Structures are given as C-alpha cells and as structure tokens.
Fold these 2 entries.
Entry 1:
Amino acid sequence: MKKIQATLITNQTTSNTSEAHTLHQKSNFGTKQNQKILYSTYETYFLTEQNKMQVQNFQNKTITKQALLKKFTNQNKNFLTNYTVFKDLTKSGYTIKTALKFGAAFRVYQKNTKHSKWICYPIKENSKIKTQDFAAQNRVAHSTKKNLLMAIVDDENSTTYYEIKWIQPQ
C-alpha cells in the first residue's frame, strides 16, 4: 500500500487520498468528515512511525517524524505517555479514539464494536493522583456505561492496565 499523503495545518492532520479512505474502512484509523479523513495526533504519529503516512505542512513540505514529535509534545506535555498507551493498545488490536469530551485521553473499542468498553487514563508510574480525581474519573466512566481503564506507564515504557468497574452488591 502506498503511504497516505496527509496535511498538518495547526493541530489538524487530514487526508482525502484513496489510501486514507481504505485504511479507515479496514482499520478505523481517523474520523471521516465530509470527503476527508481527520487524524488525531496519536494516529498521525503512529502511522508516520509505522511508515504508512507522510505528513506535509500547508506549503507541501514534508514534516519529519522528529519534527512531529516535537510539535505534539510541545502541544501536550503528556503526549509521550499517552502515545505509549495508544501504541500498545493499537498493536494489541483495539481501536483507540480520543475522549476529550469525557475528560480522559482515550475511548477504547474492542474489535468490530460500535461502542467503547473503556475510558482510558494513562499516567506515569510515579505520578500521584488525587482521590477525588480518581473518583471523578470512575464516575464519568460509570455514567457513560464504560469501565475505567487506568494505564500505568513505567520508565521503560511498559504499560500495566487496571480495569475498574462498578458492581452491584448482592
């Protein structure tokens, strides 16, 4: 398959190539909007890293993988931690979409499902999380009929997952 030719303008990566549409249909990468496929920063970096996408700026100059990483980490201080989780889950066969409207990093979909099972919060291994933040994350997951997935990324970029779900007492 030919590389997807995409354009990054401000914070938005888009493509309307046949390769982009084919990958979207096959693997659900990107979000279809009108005739274009829109990519999250994580999808953009992943596809670039996998040598499946070439990103250009508005002047049609190629943006290197290193320049993308610098741009994305400048925009989001948690980009590398989140990306580690995105990459791990994607390579494990899950579909990952952003979850900003839920106050989380990602929605995680199992294969061939229309509704996400988890809302995912990646954090660095030695980070602290306040009890009220954890409770809020759990409440959002429960109110959206999803389970909470805490993704703990260690210094070697290995991720450990903890699923938190509500149960009904007997």
Entry 2:
Amino acid sequence: MASGRTHDIINLLALPPLVYYLKPTDYIGFSAGYLAGTFFLSPDNDIYHSLPNKRWKFLRIIWKPYTKIFSHRGISHYPIVGTLTRLLYLVIVFSALFFVCYFLSTKIYPDSKKIFSDINLNIGYLTSPFFISFLIGLFLSEIIHILTDIVYSFLKKLNPKRIL
C-alpha cells in the first residue's frame, strides 16, 4: 500500500487535469472538495495514526470510534460508499456535539434557547452547484486514492523485493 505522502502527491498531480475539464463556475467547489478529500477525508481515516487523521490536530479524537467501527481497506475503501460513510459519520458526531452543547447551555442558562432557535437549519444548500461540485471533488479524490492503492499493490506483487 502506498504511503500517505505518496497519496498526497499523486492526488495533487491529478488535480490540474481534472479541473481543466470543468466549467469555471465549478472550479472552487470541486477543488475545495478534492483537497478536503485528499488531506482530511481520505479512505485512510480508518487508521487512527494515518496522516489524514493527524491533520485534524486536536479534533483527531473524533476519528477514534470510526477506526474501531471500520476496518482498513473495508467499506471505507469502496468508491463513493466510503466517502458517504465518512460524511455521515461526521454529521452524526457534530450533531451529537451540537445537542450536547444545546442541552448543557439550556441547563446553565435557560435563555440560551432563544440563541439556538435563531439558528436556521436550511438544507437547501445541499442542491447548490457549489455543494454538488464539492461532493464530486470528494468522490474523485477518493477514487484516485483507491486506484493508487490498487496499482501500488499490483506493482509490488510483480516485484516484491523492490518497493516503489
């Protein structure tokens, strides 16, 4: 399996040709998703000491349960499904944190319910062109990561004594 640094380099080298074929309105969303997928939401998030997890700094702890739930090269390495599991996992974790904050703040300061009621949870942005481009970028960064693993493993089997 390729190292985290190798994945980063290959994904970064693949970005310019991918962006070349996009409409200019999609550059930012796609690139943001692609870079987030490369550096923070990699299929290797299922390894606690992986480079993508280390990049989360003190928030890295949120990935500990994920590494216990998903085995390496399991569902997290299935194209599209892996990204969806990581996104769903983050939604669950941050929703739980939100509700804990809500519960604690309303117990300590009852008037804080007004602050939370002012938060507009509009999910209409999920159909925006930016968000769709962002998701496509996430998915493509994952696919390139998985293809790199496949090619690296194949080449390693051809010549096991020489590591790429």
